[in-house]
Amino acid sequence: MASELIGNSARTVRLENSVWIDGLLFSFLLTGEDTQGRFSLTRAIQRQRCEPPFHIHKNADETFYVVEGTLTFYLAGESLAAPAGTTVFVGRGREHSFTVETPTAETLILFTPAGTENFFKEICVPARTLTLPPLPEGPPDVARLMTAAAKYDIEITGPPPKARS
User: Which tens digits make up the pLDDT trace of 77-114?
Assistant: First the structure.
């Protein structure tokens, strides 16, 4: 069976495709619009104290590649150290989160199929520079986060890992 060809796409990290999200820098390298919905690929500069709450993607698999730094992933009650060079696969329906163990970390995040990148686009502000934004001054807007998460079939199941400690 022949597969349908996806058009050629190439994108670099630029202000036009980068956003700030609660102290993080995300750059959308390929979106569902580029891949006919098959997948999205995002570069993320993560930092300590800005980790995500525990959550479940109901309709997408999530794969992380750690380019720089070290993260610890929490999957189904287990912890997994992920230094640079590590790939972590999180299948849809699995509760997960992570902590950033180094001051910052660079990751590539692949969502299959695409669509979850739109959640991040909804809760972000355009990046003003290609550097990390200032740390958030207060807690995130939980109501806004929960509304956007529900829209993209993401279930928030608990606070970030360090908040559980």
Answer: 899 999 999 999 999 999 999 999 999 999 999 999 99
Contact 96/154 with Cβ under 8 angstroms? no
CATH number of the CATH domain containing 119: 2.60.120.10
Question: What is the reported pLDDT for 7?
Answer: 64
Over the range 139-159, which residues count as b (16 or more CB within 10 Å of their CB) and which as e?
eeeeeebeebbeebebeeeee
Residue 135 domain flag = no
Identify whether 4 is part of a domain.
no
Residue 1 has pLDDT above 50, yes or no: no
Q: Is 56 helix (H, G, I), strand (E, B) or coil?
A: strand
The count of structural domains within the chain is 1
CB contact set of 125 (below 8 Å; sequence gap of 6+): 19, 20, 21
